[in-house]
Amino acid sequence: MKNHEILFKITYGLYAVCSGDEGQGNGFISNTVFQVASKPAKFALGCNKDNYTAEIIEKYGNFSVSILHQDTDSELFGSLGYKSGRDLNKLEGMNIKYGETGAPIILDDCIVYIECKVTDKFDVGSHWLFIGELVDAQTVDESSVPLTYDFYRKEKKGKAPKNAPTYVEEPDDESSTKNGERYKCAVCGFIYDEEKEGVKFDDLPDEWKCPLCGTEKENFFKI
Length: 223
Description:
Strand content: 25-35%
Low-confidence stretches: none
CATH architecture of the largest domain: Roll
CATH class of the largest domain: Mainly Beta
Strand order of the largest sheet: 2-1-5-8-9-4-3
Number of strands: 12
Order of helices and strands: EEEEHEHEEEEHEEHE
Mean pLDDT: 86
Helix content: 10-25%
Radius of gyration: 18 Å
């Protein structure tokens, strides 16, 4: 039997990936971006075939990658990681610039960004693997530490969205803790454990939001 926990030991970064132009753009959170060649510099990007961004990349032939820092706002993960661009403009309200290819580039919580034009596409099963030649690369913040997928999981208690290549479905634990209840975010799956947090869920202020995806308190349910 495969031990999927081993997959989390592979080192990853965590990135905001965008594609399109000023008229139509979309983005998602990715942990599968890596350099595959140096002359010319080329990068590989894994994108689920069901992602709206995959359609945009195929249409416009470009993508940008914003490398995020460790203190990235949870609302960025909520907007890009757990919602669909088919239902709303995921980039609305963000600090965006448009690159040489026209691709939107997210500057919020960004350390550096790269911009690529697509040169190849490979079918790898659930995902497309896009290969992009580097067009531009710029530094935004030299002082911050890059966010890794390991830090995201262990420190931020983050979970992979269903379209991520590292997603593993986890059964709900229906039991309550010894000294409190547990509540689950319906958007991202984050578990609020009253025993661990030391505050009853009902006592949290109405404006409290999920620390992982930024959704409202009303989107939690008891498990």
